[in-house]
Each structure stands twice: as structure tokens, then as C-alpha cells.
Design goal:
3 helices; mainly alpha
């Protein structure tokens, strides 16, 4: 997950060929669904989950 790797919204949008607004919407959705408060918590959750394929 790009947020877990510390990527900014702009970097993610470039990598995935989507608008920054779309990335922001997806990040907000992740935060809401996982009951998290910020991107740092997403990164910690991704780190604790370990590598995935």
C-alpha cells in the first residue's frame, strides 16, 4: 500500500494514474472504514501487517 510506504497523495496519483482528489477520497475512505485518525496510523497498520503479495 502506497500510504503505508509513506507516499504523498501526489506521488500516489502519479503512480496510479488518477487525480489527487480521487486519491484523497480513497485515503479518507480507508481512514473511516478502519476507524483511524491519520495517515501515520495507516502506515503503522500496514507495517504491522507485514509484507503482502
Amino acid at each position: 500500500m502506497a500510504v503505508g510506504r509513506g507516499r504523498s497523495n501526489a506521488q500516489i496519483s502519479d503512480e496510479l494514474f488518477m487525480s489527487v482528489a480521487t486519491v484523497k477520497a480513497h485515503v479518507s475512505s480507508i481512514l473511516a472504514k478502519l476507524a483511524l485518525n491519520n495517515r501515520t496510523q495507516i502506515a503503522l497498520l500496514a507495517h504491522d501487517a507485514g509484507p503482502t503479495i
